[in-house]
From TrEMBL:
InterPro entries: Ribosomal_mL43, Ribosomal_mL43/mS25/NADH_DH, Thioredoxin-like_sf
GO molecular function list: structural constituent of ribosome
Keywords: Mitochondrion, Ribonucleoprotein, Ribosomal protein
Pfam families, sorted: L51_S25_CI-B8
Transmembrane residue ranges: none
Domain Ribosomal protein/NADH dehydrogenase: start-end pairs: 24-97
Protein name in UniProt: Large ribosomal subunit protein mL43
GO CC terms, sorted: mitochondrial large ribosomal subunit
Organism: Exaiptasia diaphana
Length: 127
């Protein structure tokens, strides 16, 4: 039996490209420079589906630019962050879909809301 017979398809990481911008001499980029020296090669080898670019921007604070398959981009300022925190940001960006966060709205509206709350089948069930 094929592995995809259970209804679950292949996972496609939505993160397409990461660009790490840093300043060569800036103090706020110290954590990112350390991450680039010690951990970036390991991250890139574990995630070959993500293109990782390192770009020098002298005189600017460090940031991560994430580009997703749907065309959206996300910019994270990582001024004065430690290398461990940068790893957490990269893992978080890797797991996101790239969609903009929207407020979830209720599909129903009433002019007289109940004080007791919404009815459920378990409301009057004996313990």
């Amino acid at each position: 039996m094929a592995a995809s017979a259970n209804g679950v398809g292949r996972y496609v990481c939505q993160l397409q490209r990461l660009t790490l911008n840093y300043c060569r001499a800036g103090g706020s980029s110290r954590g990112l420079r350390e991450f680039i020296d010690k951990s970036l090669v390991d991250f890139a080898s574990k995630n070959p589906q993500i293109a990782v670019y390192v770009r020098e921007r002298n005189g600017k604070h460090p940031r991560i630019v994430a580009n997703y398959l749907n065309g959206n981009s996300k910019i994270i300022d990582i001024k004065n962050e430690y290398p461990q925190d940068i790893q957490v940001w990269l893992d978080r960006l890797k797991g996101e879909s790239g969609k903009k966060i929207e407020k979830i709205r209720k599909f129903w509206h009433t002019d007289h809301p109940s004080i007791q709350g919404t009815w459920t089948p378990f409301m009057n069930k004996p313990l």
